[in-house]
Amino acid sequence: MPKLVKFLALPVLAIGAGILLYHFLLHPGTEQPATEPPVSAKPHPRSATADAPVPAKEHLVAEFHKLLELEGPIDLDAWSNLLDQFIQRDPNAIADMVQKLPGTSPNREFLMHRVAQKWAAADPQGAITWAKSIYTLNERDQMVGSVCYEIAQRDPLVALQTVESCDPPIHTVGIYQGLVSQLAEQDFAQALEWSRSHLDQAARNQLLQSLAFTQAQTDPEGAAILVADTITASTTQGEAALSVILQWAKTDPSAARTWAKSFPDENLRQRALQEISSAENSPPPSSDEDTLSGN
Fold first, then answer.
1. Rounded CA gap, 162 and 140, in Å?
2. What is the pLDDT of residue 4?
3. Cα–Cα distance between 66 and 88 in angstroms, integer?
4. How many domains does the chain fold into?
5. What is the pLDDT of residues 56-102, one digit of tens each?
6. Which residue range forms the structural domain that includes residue 128?
């Protein structure tokens, strides 16, 4: 059991222990200056439908307006097929048509994300070029996030570099958290290294908090060391510590209790110990077999 002597003094916290790893997005792009990292993620392989003849643009435009006029729930399959065809025929045209829909349109946000997602899957560079060109910064950030979320399916490090290259910079930490989480699934050490060396201190603390939550599910002792050694902000550190405690108490409540007792802040210490006791006293979930047998 490591001696976690670096744990900071922590204020009173009234928090929930879950960490929201923000999921966003679906994606489009903008041309990048030579100084920016290239979007090198390869497009997805072409599907069988991609080899079918693509209708003329005039036909696609007519179908677009026809679908907009439909009442009731959004026809996801119809929109998906139409967008696939438009991305093959003229992605800039469909992106422009969707972007020009009024903000009151119930379809606009959904379609913006779907265009971004499908464009990024077919042509990451073209998609990021479009996304970065969006005038409204909030919408630009969302679309860049969507594009990069798709890029991250193949190369999360390239996705992070692409987000970081935006000018003006993207300050939505949730976008970085989602991408760092994807990188951690492939290479936790690389995700940790990136998080410790990028963005400002407040954002780094949030990224490290997310990584601690991820690591706690398989290595709670390692996550405890990460929290104690790398997170500097006391409030963020306290939230991260509780998230680790919740996971650790499920597998080794004795070790979790030993660590919790080392917390210098009384309120945090008591909160952690209560969480451990609750975990110990909670009955294990019944298996399907027990449920069926009536035991």
1. 13
2. 43
3. 20
4. 1
5. 999 999 999 999 999 888 899 999 999 999 999 999 999 999 999 99
6. 50-280
Residue 194's CB: how many other CB atoms inside 10 A?
A: 24
| Both tokens assigned to 192 | 């940790």
DSSP designation for 290: H
In a domain, 30, yes or no: no
CA distance 188 to 236: 20
Distance CA 175, CA 142 (A): 8
Is residue 107 in a domain? Answer: yes
Residues of the chain falling short of pLDDT 70: 1-52, 284-295
Give buried/exposed letters for 64-103 (b at 16+ CB in 10 A, else e): beeeeeeeeeeeeeebeebbbbbbbebbeebbebbbeeee
Report the CATH number that the domain containing residue 247 is assigned in CATH: 1.25.10
Q: If you count them, how many residues does the chain have?
A: 295
- Rounded Cα gap, residues 267 and 258, in angstroms: 16
Amino acid 288: pLDDT: 53
Phi/psi of residue 124, nearest 5 degrees: -55, -40
Which residue in this structure is represented by tokens 């509780």? 242
Give the three-state DSSP class for 52: coil
**Do 122 and 27 form a contact (C-beta atoms < 8 A)?**
no
For residue 290, tell me if it sits in a domain: no
- The answer as to whether 4 is a domain residue is no
Which residue, 96, 18, 90, 28, is CA-closest to 54? 90
- pLDDT recorded at residue 21: 34
Joined tokens for residue 210: 């997310």
The pTM assigned to this predicted structure is 0.75
Burial (0-12, 13-18, 19+ Cβ within 10 Å), 230: buried
Scan for tokens 């990024």, then name that residue.
120
Identify the CA nearest to 241 among candidates 2, 15, 20: 15
Comparing C-alpha atoms, which of 268, 202, 255 is closest to residue 225?
Answer: 255
